[in-house]
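Retro notes
What went well: the complex prediction finally ran end to end.
Inputs used:
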Amino acid sequence: MRATTTRESFCGDLTANDQRNMARYNGWLVAWMALWVGARFLVEARGEQLAGPLGWGVVALTLVPGALAVGTYVRFLREADELLRKIQLEALALAFGVGVLFMTSWRLVEKVGGPQLDVNDPVLVMYVVWVTAQWLGARRYR
Amino acid sequence: VNNRLRVLRAEHDWSQADLAGRAGVSRQTINAIETGKYDPSLPLAFKIARIFGQPIERIFAPDGEAPGQAPGEPAPIARPA
């Protein structure tokens, strides 16, 4: 009998191919985050020396693993087990929708005296909704 | 969509994971199809039909019809054992 290589995860069961694609995505994501943190420290420590093309180069360098992370996620999604893809797409739709609503609504909140929105805040909201929606989606089909 | 996956699996003495491995999907997907929480794509339904060596309409049927039943035909009455 054929051995199964399905593995349970918080976002749904992953086939062997899903596990490989997820590992690639996570690898590039970690590389991007590490490079971004490194670049931020460098820019804060030596901002004046990095003004101009050198500074733009440092910023552009961080985009390389970031773009590869996006590319590997798209590949993961295209090749994913069909139920997993459904869970992911619903989570992405929810995260995008909530993020857009949060951004546009907060602009109104600012006009009526609320605190200024930081550019990182909507990203955090989208990320939290995305992860939570994956977990809830996976639970729904268990 | 109604289906006979659980019955066919039992006849072959396969677990959900066994069928998932053969169909190239996750065990969760097979479980969700069996419990009616998820309708498979057409390619997956054909793949499952090929695995069991049966026509697709013998395994899957639209809501309100039993698999193996001709369109418009009333559902067969279960006979006592």
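What we learned: DSSP finds four helices and no strands in chain A.
What to try next: split runs per interface for comparison.
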